[in-house]
Design the sequence.
């Protein structure tokens, strides 16, 4: 993540600025496993040994296999990883934006004015931006001295440093 004086975005290494504990990975893995199990069960209705091929049972099997297959596909799709959040710090408009996606599929997650932020922390080349209620909004690594001066100047003007 970097802060640029005009509207340039740099991808963040993490999905959000919270502690990585593996719970999201575990949840997505369980969803993938559940979706695969539902789709396997849908196919297993047709290949199980000793299955009845009567017309009335076939209609029930068709409905049940379609339901299981569609539910499995939905659970598999829900288990996909979401694209990472990009942090945009616009010192001209005095706002911090969190964007998700790439290209035309970009969506605004949150927009916070610098005046609405809580106190900001600067430690070396790291800047942590907190919301008014104490939640971490973004953690930005600033390597360019000009960008660091621009951001710290904007934060000082807003009374956050």
Sequence:
């Amino acid at each position: 993540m970097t802060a640029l004086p005009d509207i340039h975005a740099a991808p963040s290494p993490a999905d959000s600025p919270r502690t990585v504990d593996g719970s999201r990975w575990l949840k997505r893995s369980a969803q993938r496993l559940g979706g695969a199990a539902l789709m396997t069960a849908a196919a297993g209705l047709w290949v199980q040994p000793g299955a009845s091929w009567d017309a009335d049972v076939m209609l029930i099997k068709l409905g049940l296999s379609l339901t299981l297959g569609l539910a499995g596909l939905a659970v598999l799709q829900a288990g996909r990883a979401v694209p990472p959040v990009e942090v945009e710090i616009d010192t001209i408009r005095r706002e911090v934006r969190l964007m998700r996606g790439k290209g035309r599929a970009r969506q605004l997650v949150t927009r916070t004015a610098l005046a609405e932020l809580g106190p900001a922390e600067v430690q070396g080349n790291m800047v942590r931006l907190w919301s008014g209620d104490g939640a971490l909004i973004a953690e930005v690594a600033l390597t360019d001295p000009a960008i660091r001066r621009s951001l710290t100047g904007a934060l000082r003007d807003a009374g956050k440093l």
